[in-house]
Amino acid sequence: MSRTTVGVAPVHTVKGTCSSMRRAYHFVSLTYGLEDLRHRRLKISRLDDLNDPFELWAIAQSDSRVRKALRETKEQMARDFGLLCFSLAWHNPVLWSHYADRHRGIALGFDVDEGILKPVSYRKTRPILKAVDLTIAESMLFTKFYDWNYEHEARIFTALNDQDLQTGLYFADFNDQLTLREVIAGPACAASLGELQQATGSGAKVRFRKARLAFKTFRVVVDQRGFPTPSSK
Predict the structure, then answer these.
(1) Which end of the chain is more exposed for a tag (fewer CB within 10 A), N or C?
(2) Residue 231 · residue 68 · CB < 8 Å
(3) 88: which residues sit within 8 A by CB, 6+ positions away?
(4) Per-domain boundaries in the chain
């Protein structure tokens, strides 16, 4: 089991120095979400596996020397670093469709230390730079094309430490800077309240909510009726 501590480069977390906290949501399928809850960890995304092909590629590259430098820098960073990806809101149905198994998954709401959480900047044009180094490349980790702005994304840039021997993946443990506060079951999620509570554990102070599709808007909202009972399914 990995014991990675999240943080920004150079990826050190200092105990007792948390800044203000911000609520952020991680969307995941039910199967992997239950695993995250049981093991109290999130999978770190590898830079090479992100779904936007322009990741770390947002710089305008008319100069072949910039292209070469950026490619080499991206390869170097991909070997050593990864991302934890969140949304700053959970009501957009497209997020549930893309990242929570078509509304059948869950959203995990965390209080995240703002010192390590950085919102993504969305741009309509690609910035022009004359040189590339690690500082510039890191800033590009938080730059995406404008049409991704529906995600309201924020990220934690963290090191790839302690590879899990069973899965070959990297994980970041829940901790004081990444504290689970909410578990929201999607509108089509089949998990019961008891199943989610059991996976989370009795020691965690977590709010459980069931979501539904809104009646008058294109939003996902809280179902005030709560989770269905077995007899009402």
Answers:
(1) C
(2) no
(3) 22, 23, 24, 25, 119, 152, 153, 154
(4) 21-232
Residue (of 90, 152, 97) closest to 122 by Cα position: 152
Q: What is the pLDDT of residues 138-181, one digit of tens each?
A: 777 898 999 999 999 999 999 999 999 999 999 999 999 999 99
Report DSSP state, residue 129: -
Q: Are 118 and 154 in contact (CB under 8 A)?
A: yes
Q: Please state, in angstroms and rounded to a whole number, the distance separating the CA atoms of residues 223 and 217.
A: 14
Which residues are CB-neighbours of 103 under 8 A, at least 6 positions away? 93, 96, 97, 186, 187, 188, 189, 220
Distance CA 200, CA 185 (A): 13
Closest CA to 43 of 223, 174, 199: 174
Which two structure tokens, joined as six digits, stand for 206? 């977590």
Beta carbons of 103 and 96 less than 8 angstroms apart:
yes
- Name residue 90's amino acid: W
Query: What's the pLDDT tens digit per position in 169-186?
Result: 999 999 999 999 999 999
What backbone phi and psi angles, to 5 degrees, belong to 144?
A: -140, 165
Return the amino acid letter for 121. Answer: S
**Residues 198 and 71 sit within 8 Å (Cβ to Cβ):** no
Q: Which residues contact 80 (CB under 8 A, 6 or more apart)?
A: 159, 160
